[in-house]
Amino acid sequence: MGAKQSAMAKDGQTAITYTYTDEAPMLATHAFYPIIQAFCSQAKIPVQIRDISVAGRLISHFPDYLSPEQKKESLTPETPTIEVDQLAALGEMAKGGKANIIKLPNVSASLPQLKECIAELQGKGYKIPNYPEDPKDDAEKEIKARYAKVLGSAVNPVLREGNSDRRAAVPVKEYAFKYPHSMGKWLPDSKTHVSSMEEGDFFSHEKSVVISEKCEARIEMLSEDGKVTVLKDKLTLQKDEVLDASFINCKMLRRFFEEQIAERGVMFSLHLKATMMKVSDPIMFGHCVKAYFKDVFAKYAETFEKIGVNANNGLGDMAKINEAQIRRANLGWSPRSRIPSRPQIQRKSVFSPRRDGSLWVCVIN
C-alpha cells in the first residue's frame, strides 16, 4: 500500500495512523485501539494501524528469508503484510504534510535486545539469519548492515523528517506555570553533585567547518600504526552545511570514572543516550562498567575472556559467572545496568536537583 493511499481515505479525508510498537504500549494497544476505532467510526474519521515494533521492523528487512505463507501475514486485515517496511512508508507519509500519525513509545533496541528478538522469531519459525558479530564475507556484512537499520533510535529520525511538532500545548504550559514543580531546600552538608569531564572529552576536542559548496566526503579512522579504515563512504554534504567532529580520550575517561566512583557515601548514576548514540555511548558505558567493577575484571580477566564477556553489554555478560560475585556490598545492584540501552541506575536521579539533592531508592537484594 503506497504512502499516499494509506494516508488518505476514499473520500479524501486524512486518516489517523496509529502505531503498533513494543512492550507496555503494545499491550495497551490491544485494549485501546478498538475503542479508538469505535469512536472514530461514529465521526466518520478513518483510522489505521501500522506495525513499527522491533520484531515487525526486523522481519521487514528480511523478506527474502520468509516463506510464501509468512509473507502473507499481517497485523490486521487492513495492515500491509509483514514483508513491507511500514516504518519507511510512514516516513514518506510524514513528508507529505497531511499525515496524522500517533507514534507510541517504542523500544530503541540495543544489541542484546536485538539478539533476543532474533532468537524469539527463529523460535516462532521465522528462518532469519543469526546476527554476525564479526562478518567473514560480503554476505555476512550485508546481513549485519540490515540489522543495523533496526538498532538504536531507528524510528524517531524517520518520522521526524516530516512536520513533527513536539512543542508542549499551551494549556500544558499554563498548567505548569500555575502549578510549578516543588523545590526542595538543599542542606549545606549535602554530598550530591553532578560531574562532567573538564578535559580530554568531546567538548575539548570539537572542531567544526562550514562546507563552502555541495560535495561528497568520507569518514576515515587513522590508527597509530598508520592504517586507514573507512568508517563511512560517500557522505553527501550541502553548501553551508556544518560538519562537526570530535573524539574523547579513553584513558582520561577511565580516570574520570575512577575518581567519581571513589566512595563518597552517595549513589552513583551514569547518564548516557546509548540508544541514539549507538556507536560511542555503549563503549563509554563499557569503560564505566570496567572502572566500577575494576577488582572483578582483574580477578576474572581470564574467565571473562574465555566466555566472551563484553563490558559494553553491561552486567548481563558478567552475570554468566555469578551475580553474587559482582554485587557491590555498599550499593544495591540494579537490573538497569544489565544492558547498554538502560545504563541508568535510577532514572529519577535527574530530578534530584529539583528536590534537595536526595532521592528515595528501593534496593532489593
Task: Kindly list the characteristics that best describe this protein.
three-stranded parallel sheet, disordered N terminus, 365 residues, single chain, alpha/beta, NADP
Distance N terminus to C terminus? 52 Å
Shape: globular
Number of helices: 15
Q: Per DSSP, what share of the residues sits in E-state strands of 2 or more residues?
A: 5-15%
Give the strand tally: 7
* Cα-based radius of gyration, to the nearest Å: 24 Å
The run of helices and strands is: HEHEHHHEHHHHHEEEEHHHHH
List low-confidence stretches.
1-7, 326-337, 342-347
Strand order of the largest sheet: 2-1-3
Structural class: alpha/beta
Helical residues, percent: 25-40%
Mean pLDDT reading = 82
Q: What is the makeup of the main sheet?
A: 3 strands, parallel
In words, what does this structure look like?
The chain has a domain of 157 residues. 19% of the residues are buried. Helix content is 35%, strand content 11%. The chain has a three-stranded parallel beta sheet, sandwiched between helices. The chain has a two-stranded antiparallel ribbon with strand order 4-7. A hairpin with a 5-residue loop joins strand 5 and strand 6. With 365 residues, it is of the alpha/beta class. It has 15 helices and seven strands. The N terminus is likely disordered.
